[in-house]
Structures are given as C-alpha cells and as structure tokens.
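User: Let's play a game. I give you a shape written as tokens, and you guess the letters that built it. Ready? Here's round one.
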C-alpha cells in the first residue's frame, strides 16, 4: 500500500495525503516451510544476496531488494522444539553481514552480533549457525550488520519452532508486516544513514506490505480456526493492526505462550521486532470479506489486506470451543526480586530534546548538532555501538535483573534484550506474559525483570534501527 509518490527529502518528514490500493491473491505466501533449499553436511544453506519483489503490486515493475535465497521474507525455517537448528550463511553481498536470531534463547556465540559474539561474515565467506531451539513459538532472523540498511532492503525471514505436540488449529499462517521507502521508479530509496531519520522517528517507508505484497488476501472457510503469526519486520514503524469483525485472541507474545486474552478493542500494537500469535476463528458467512487494517499515522486506518471467505459450505457446523493455553516453555519459574540487581537505564537524546553530557570515548555531545560518529542517542548516559566500551552491567548467572527504562526523549523506543525474555511491570503487577521487545513511549517509564541465566555478552538496544546505530545500544555480561 502506497502513499502518493513524491520525491523523498532527507530534511523533512514524508507527507501522508493519499493512499492507493491494489488487490491481488497469492496463496503461495501462506506456505510456511518453503522447501527445496540447499543442504550441505546437514546444514540448511541461506544465501544473502539480491532478489526482486513486487512491492507496489502486480501492475508495477518489481523492486530490486536484498534477500535470503532471493526472497523477502526469506525462506521460512521450521523445526520442532528441542531440535537442532543448523544454518550455513553464505554471503553473496558486496558488504559484510551476519544473522541474528531474534528472540531465541540460544548460546551466545550463535547470537549473530558483529564484534560482540562473532566477526562479520565478509563477502564470499560463510558462517555456520548451530543451536538447539529450546522454546516453541514464532521467531525471526535478520541481519545485525548495518541493519538499518540491510533490514530495510529485505534481509529478514521467519523461524517457526513447533510445539512437541500438535496444536489444535486447522491452518498455520505467517504474516510479516513491514514498510518500504521507495523512490519514484520503485527502487529502494538510498537515503540510508541520514541524520533526520536517526534523530527523529527512524526510517519510515511510504509503502506497507504483508509478506512483501502490496495487498494480500487470506482465504478462509467459515468456522475454520487459523493460527495467525504476526511479525513486525519494519525498521522503525510501530504498527497498530485490526482485523474487522473478527475476535483477535492472543495466544503468545514474542514467541512465548501466555494466558489466552482478547486484544484490547481488537487492536494489536506491535513494535519493530514484536511478534504475536493469534487464534483467529472465522465466524462470517460463506462469501464474506473482512478488512485487515493498519493505522496510517494520521488517526485513520488503511486496508492492507482482506480475509476472504470461500463461498462453499462451512468447514464444520459450529465454531470450535475456546482454546486451551499453549504449553509453557522452560523459562525460569520465578523472579527473585528481593535479591535482584537493579539499574535505571534512561533513554535520552534525539533531534527534539537536548541531551546534556553523556557519551562514551569522546563521542558524547551537547545540544542538537551532529556529534562525532553520529552518536545522538544514549542508554544510561552512554552512547555506544552496542559492542564498544564497558558493559552496561555485569551479573552472576542466575541472578534476577530489574531494569527501569524512563524515556526522556520525544519519540517511542522499542527496547530489545538479546538472549533472554522478561516480564513487564504495570500498576496492577507483573503482566502475565514474557517479552523480548517492549515499547517505551515518550515521557513514560517501563519496568522489566528477567533471570540472567544465559551466560555471555548480550546486547540491549532500541529496535528502531536508526536509533540503535546512532547510539541507543549497549551490552551486558552474564558470567
């Protein structure tokens, strides 16, 4: 879905006056495991290189992208809980790259953070990722090297870890929502690294896609139950989604099961990196259609897809009963808050709020000018690439960590913790689900806690990727 096509200027926000829609059906988009992939010594080979995608619809020229195996999202990888993931990354790009396995509680050496857990994979080289998937759920993989460019060009894919026992749904569907900043000719706009994006909301694209399609139709049958796995792969945009005339029953958040709950007012708010698993029952009459809607950042909604009902008879005579919770993953049973390591981690900086002092290694700044190394954001007063300088904190393995995240900037941040999942505190207590990425709105404070049970050096950063690369990143150590 596109905004009106006007030349992009790095010095001003994109205008949002008119949305254009084009419809098309692609049933192939819902086939989760894309087979036929190369295997070498038992490793699934993923090639990071170039590809093409029809981001503007079937009637427009395709867009050159960067992709895994020529497609974005990349091939959907699928294993069962407790099985080994074996992936060989082959770099066919002209710049280095890595793969980060977002949300996986995996060994530190497999986390895919350049200069912290591994060296970048140079052009023409390869790297083997090998780890056991401890948790069932919805995860994704993406580049973590120059990620503000490489992810924006399409370098991401989906990893599904199936439960040991089959889940009672009729179908399993992945929807990856993202946005793309395109030039008038349909090419990806080369405005990477500009300070307007870094200092403001991040790179926001004027085209929104589901599974890299301009408008996507999801076929269903009346009284069918679908497990719908939603993933936000955008650089910076927070998506607020709604499926018209359908009940959105949340079964898992960020890959971790939670007590079944209805989305408030039917709205799903996903930060970059967030995932949510819905059980979507299809209650409408045969032949019906229902819109998949997203906010347009102006207080209105845009239709980016449809639920399309088969005109034939219902799948079954009546809807299925309310689902049971998904089986728990082996996360720590208890947060020991009495003995927790506690730390305030203020989120500071940006183009509309003066950051006084802070910085690391001479890269700090005062005021709103462009600082050395383009560091204009900070965590706890430190402006870092996420691998340089001292750790934000060091704790012994098994200790509970409680972080307070006050956002003192004028923009929201999607704070992501590597290698761990955390609980979130609100006025009524600890929320009954685990996350790996949390939205911290302006002038708000979020409090999170996790058991530091995964040894190694782990990143914590804003998943608005331009914010991360402009200093809102750090690392911590679990010994």
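Assistant: Ready! My guess for every position:
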């Amino acid at each position: 879905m596109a905004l009106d096509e006007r030349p992009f200027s790095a010095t001003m926000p994109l205008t949002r006056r008119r949305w254009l829609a084009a419809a098309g059906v692609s049933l192939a988009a819902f086939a989760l495991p894309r087979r036929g992939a190369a295997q070498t010594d038992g490793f699934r080979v993923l090639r990071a290189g170039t590809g093409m995608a029809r981001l503007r619809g079937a009637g427009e020229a395709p867009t050159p992208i960067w992709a895994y195996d020529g497609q974005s999202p990349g091939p959907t990888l699928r294993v069962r809980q407790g099985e080994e993931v074996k992936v060989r990354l082959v770099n066919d790009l002209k710049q280095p790259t890595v793969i980060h396995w977002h949300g996986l509680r995996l060994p530190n050496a497999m986390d895919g953070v350049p200069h912290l857990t591994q060296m970048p994979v140079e052009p023409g080289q390869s790297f083997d990722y090998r780890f056991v998937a401890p948790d069932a759920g919805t995860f994704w993989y993406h580049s973590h090297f120059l990620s503000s460019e490489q992810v924006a060009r399409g370098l991401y894919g989906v990893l599904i870890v199936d439960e040991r026992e089959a889940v009672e749904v009729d179908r399993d569907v992945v929807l990856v929502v993202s946005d793309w900043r395109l030039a008038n000719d349909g090419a990806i706009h080369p405005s990477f690294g500009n300070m307007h994006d870094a200092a403001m909301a991040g790179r926001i694209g004027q085209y929104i896609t589901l599974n890299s399609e301009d408008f996507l139709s999801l076929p269903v049958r009346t009284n069918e139950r679908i497990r719908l796995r939603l993933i936000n792969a955008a650089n910076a945009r927070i998506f607020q989604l709604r499926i018209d005339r359908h009940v959105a029953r949340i079964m898992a958040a960020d890959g971790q099961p939670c007590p079944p709950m209805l989305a408030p007012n039917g709205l799903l708010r996903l930060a970059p990196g967030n995932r949510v698993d819905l059980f979507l029952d299809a209650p409408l009459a045969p032949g019906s259609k229902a819109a998949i809607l997203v906010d347009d950042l102006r207080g209105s909604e845009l239709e980016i897809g449809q639920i399309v009902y088969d005109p034939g008879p219902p799948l079954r005579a009546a809807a299925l009963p309310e689902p049971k919770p998904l089986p728990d993953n082996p996360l720590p049973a208890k947060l020991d808050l009495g003995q927790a390591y506690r730390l305030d981690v203020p989120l500071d900086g940006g183009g509309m709020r003066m950051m006084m002092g802070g910085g690391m290694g001479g890269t700090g700044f005062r005021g709103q000018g462009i600082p050395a190394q383009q560091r204009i954001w900070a965590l706890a007063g430190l402006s870092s690439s996420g691998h340089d300088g001292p750790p934000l904190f060091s704790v012994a393995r098994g200790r509970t960590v409680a972080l307070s995240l006050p956002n003192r900037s004028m923009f929201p941040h999607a704070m992501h913790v590597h290698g761990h999942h955390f609980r979130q505190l609100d006025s009524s207590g600890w929320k009954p689900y685990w996350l790996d990425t949390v939205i911290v709105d302006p002038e708000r404070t979020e409090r999170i806690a996790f058991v530091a049970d995964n040894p190694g050096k782990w990143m914590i950063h804003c998943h608005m990727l331009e914010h991360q690369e402009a200093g809102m990143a750090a690392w911590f150590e679990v010994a």
